[in-house]
Write a structure and sequence with these properties.
The complex is a heterodimer.
Chain A (H helix, E strand, L loop, with lengths): L21 H28 L7 H26 L7 H11 L1 H23 L9 H11 L1
Chain B lengths: L1 H8 L14 H30 L6 H4 L14 H25 L3 H31 L2 E4 L5 E4 L14 H9 L3 H11 L5 H5 L3 H11 L4 E2 L4 H32 L2 H5 L3 H26 L1
Parallel strand pairs in B: 1-3
Antiparallel strand pairs in B: 1-2
Classes of the chains: A mainly alpha, B mainly alpha.
């Protein structure tokens, strides 16, 4: 297979160029299809569910979760097929994907932090925290007697 | 065999052979993109933290609901869908350019690079329109001092809070100074010359505004504008630099630089950057418009 174009002396074997563009178009239609589903769900949120007090908070969260998962699917196809990461060798893929796992902690920790910030602010509403000291003090007295 | 001889001469871990079977430039482009993913990730996650910390957050469907040429029609998600499809399409033309490069087809590379550049410019034009629309489009908002005003969407203020009841708006009109009443009245009658309105008395203006049945909002979360313009701006700047890189690649392909070199790997590297821009848009689109 000496016809393969070797782009650099560092490369020991070249990938055979893809025969046709069928895979590219398949992914294009897949990405468009996922985007359309996202838009339908987003439109549902906008027009029907968002301002409606009848809709439960959990249902909205569920729809948003589905939209997030669909976005991750899109990201996977763009990186794997359009950017050809799926065609690289495994060690190369791992040096990219493993560091990105930091995002799991990153997203969870910081959204948790934001939520905790809201809870604390709502609880104290600008007032300094009041430390309850009367009850333990009374108990201590009782114990000494 | 010649390969055995070559391997004996090769110093495996001191250069001369890539452990990843990819050129240095391509591997480094991947690591740059990974670091850029963390930059964008940090921006989007900090936006998420602030959004989670607020009791009220702006409904994106009320902010991004216009389409050029459709006036005041309520069309949530429409324009941004167009932008998304433009970017997906330009991503496809980019991957087709890379494909033609593998086949050493100079004409094909040129054609698809040109289409990709056109897509990038179209996307940037859409974003320019959207920003202009937000920065110049004024809406009525209730300020903290209890008076009404017209506000654009900027990094300092925005009119995208909760809607206030009609009675509260009528009460607020009484404490609103005359120059603001003129501004509010001019949002109702776009054609009416503002100097005519300026000559009207306060009560005349208040009556006119009350009769128009308009809506007013509280001011929105201040962080909204900063995050929106900051993150979409940072992404837009990536698109701009991607377009510049693609134009350089187009010119170099046209001048047969890659043909002389014997390969079109530079198109692949530019393509990686361009697809990354599309990838980031997937998440910007998700965080600012969809949810």
């Amino acid at each position: 297979m000496s016809e393969h174009i070797v782009t650099s002396p560092e490369i020991t074997f070249a990938h055979a160029p893809a025969e046709g563009t069928g895979r590219i178009w398949k992914i294009f239609w897949l990405l468009s299809f996922i985007t359309v589903i996202e838009l339908v769900l987003g439109f549902g949120l906008a027009k029907h569910w968002y301002g409606d007090p009848e809709t439960s908070h959990t249902a909205i969260l569920f729809v948003k979760g589905v939209i997030c998962i669909l976005s991750f699917a899109k990201a996977f196809y763009i990186v794997s097929v359009f950017m050809h990461l799926g065609d690289e060798i495994r060690n190369m893929i791992m040096t990219i994907v493993v560091p990105l796992c930091l995002f799991i902690w990153f997203i969870a920790a910081f959204l948790w932090d934001g939520n905790s910030w809201k809870t604390l602010r709502n609880r104290y509403n600008g007032k300094p925290a009041q430390i309850e000291k009367t009850i333990p003090a009374a108990k201590e007295k009782g114990a000494k007697d | 065999m010649s390969t055995v001889a070559a391997q004996q001469e090769t110093k495996w871990w001191s250069g001369g052979r890539s452990p990843f079977n990819a050129s240095y430039g391509k591997v480094m482009m991947w690591y740059f993109l990974m670091s850029d993913a963390f930059t964008f990730g940090a921006f989007l996650i900090s936006y998420g933290t602030i959004r989670f910390s607020q009791n009220f957050w702006t409904d994106p469907n009320k902010v991004f609901n216009s389409f050029p040429g459709f006036g005041h029609m309520d069309l949530p998600l429409a324009f941004v869908s167009l932008m998304t499809f433009i970017l997906i399409a330009s991503s496809v033309t980019m991957v087709l350019a890379v494909h033609e490069g593998h086949k050493m087809n100079k004409k094909g590379v040129e054609k698809y690079m040109l289409l990709t550049i056109v897509g990038g410019i179209a996307f940037l034009s859409c974003q320019a329109w959207e920003w202009t629309h937000l920065l110049t489009g004024e809406h009525i908002a209730l300020l903290n001092d209890g008076s009404l005003s017209v506000l654009p969407t900027t990094t300092r203020m925005n009119p995208w809070g909760d809607e206030i009841p009609h009675e509260a708006m009528l009460a607020a009109l009484k404490t609103t100074p005359q120059d603001q009443l003129v501004n509010i009245a001019s949002t109702i009658h776009h054609e009416g010359a503002s100097h005519n309105l300026a000559e009207m008395s306060n009560t005349q203006l208040v009556d006119m505004i009350s009769a128009a049945g308009i809506h007013a909002n509280h001011t929105g979360p201040i962080a909204f504008g900063g995050y929106f313009f900051g993150i979409t701006g940072f992404h837009g700047f990536h698109v701009l630099s991607g377009v510049v890189i693609n134009i350089i690649m187009y010119i170099k392909a046209k001048l047969s630089h890659f043909e002389q070199r014997g390969h079109y790997e530079m198109i692949e590297k530019a393509g990686l950057y361009w697809h990354f821009v599309d990838l980031v848009w997937v998440f910007v689109f998700l965080c600012f418009y969809l949810i």
